[in-house]
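BUG-291 | component: ligand-complex export | severity: low

The export step for S-adenosylmethionine jobs runs without errors, but we want the raw record kept on the ticket for reference. Input record follows.
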Amino acid sequence: MAALSDIGTIKDIMQRHGFAFSKGLGQNFLINPSVCPRMAEMGGAQDEWGVLEVGPGIGVLTAELAKRAKKVVAIELDDRLLPVLAETLAEYGNVEIVHGDVMKLDLHQIIAEKFSDCAGVTVCANLPYYITSPVIMSLLENHLPVKAVTVMVQKEAAERICAAVGSRESGALTVAVNYYSQPEILFKVSRGSFMPPPNVDSAVIRMTVRETPPFDVGDEKLFFGMIKAGFSQRRKTLSNSLTSGGFLSRSDAASALNAAEIPLNTRIEALGMDELAKLSRSICNIKQTVI
Ligand code: SAM
């Protein structure tokens, strides 16, 4: 099979299968031949391991994963790509395509059923950008038994996810990703590496999943409620952002901030992970006292 990153090959496949790119499904296919081998290597595709891919497209990354891993399961929503993938990946007996929406499938079940004979499982994907954050969050917060999540995302999203918690660049997604994993930017990829080229550059990030949370937050649901309330009004002081939207009463917010030794006029974006965890535990104590 000719190189799947080759523009001529892609055009030939598209013509023969009557395929046209869907902007709505985030279909920007990789044409830079150095990206997929690098992603597969750094994403942990290796002997005896299983890899879960989201959105194989015409299979350019899938083939590189299949060359290195024991088994690759790739979830693709666009049924027009199924006959294409059957052709492009025909030589790899260790690839299985699952037709469906990654946001609706039971990934725990897929991993348990398909990778039971693998030493471990990792996720590697060039994500459709319209669902970057929900896919990352669902992969992490569902506590899937995966070692790492290595994905291509828009450069701005990569920088936000990998920003230090407590810096101006951080957001709710930064905190959540850092709670569940240790994220890092592996390498940047220019917009010209895709067909059709998107309007922005991209980056590959790796989130190495933590076995245990980095800090005791008291109650995860309450912690993420606090993060949501705080960052939805991130320019306000915490005593205001935690009370608007009804997350806490003004007196409870003041008591929690005092107990956590955080000045009332602090903004949430200034707090590091340890301080956020401390504040969450204080809120937890107050709520328990009320009950
Ligand atoms: N992996 C290929 C590559 O690197 O050239 C294609 C990547 S393209 C950015 C994203 C892929 O995700 C497309 O094949 C698209 O059809 C697929 N996709 C979009 N939404 C999806 C969803 N909800 N579930 C599974 N796949 C999806």
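Assignee comment: Attached the raw record above. The mean pLDDT is 96.
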